[in-house]
Amino acid sequence: MTQKSKTRSIPSTGHELLRLDNQLCFALYAATRAISKTYRQKLGPIGLTYPQYLVLIVLWENDGVTVSEIGRRLMLDSGTLTPLLKRLENMGVVQRERGIDDQREVRIWLSPKGLDLQDLALESRRFVACRLDMPETEIAALRADIMSLIGRLGADCEEDAGVVQPGEDGLPA
After folding, report:
1. pTM for this one?
2. H/E element holding 51?
3. 19-148, CATH topology level
4. Where in the chain are the domains?
5. Closest to 50 (Cα-Cα) out of 38, 64, 65, 62
6. The Cα angle at residue 51 between residues 63 and 93, in degrees rounded to 5
7. Residues 48, 59: contact at Cβ < 8 Å?
8. Which of 6, 39, 40, 124 has fewest C-beta within 10 Å?
């Protein structure tokens, strides 16, 4: 089998929407990778991964919430969240406590070490904001747009119920 030395462009037959440059999903994927890498530069030295940082953010807002509440806030299932919480517990950052009335309910509490990480994590957030070179108002607006997108993708849609199909408005999805 011989290897071709040149690339070739596949002739377009109305499939312009399949070009990489027209993929919203790729732009979001690449942005996610870039922002995670940027956070990793500051979180790594303090021993945290980005998902662990997100769990701690939820707990810094409301300590002692249930595992299911953390999962809801982070849009994670228990299969993904449980190992994260176990690692944080093994690191001495959080403590798990079973419910008295319902043993299935587990609440997560910050340890003193978890509380102490808040100031270091704030530096990570400031570092990312600096790298973005955007004012907080612009960051908030971008976040709102992305959360709206997530809401739209999570909404149940009737097939062809007045929804403009990609390409019908002349714009890529």
Report:
1. 0.78
2. helix 50-61
3. Arc Repressor Mutant, subunit A (1.10.10)
4. 19-148
5. 38
6. 45
7. no
8. 6
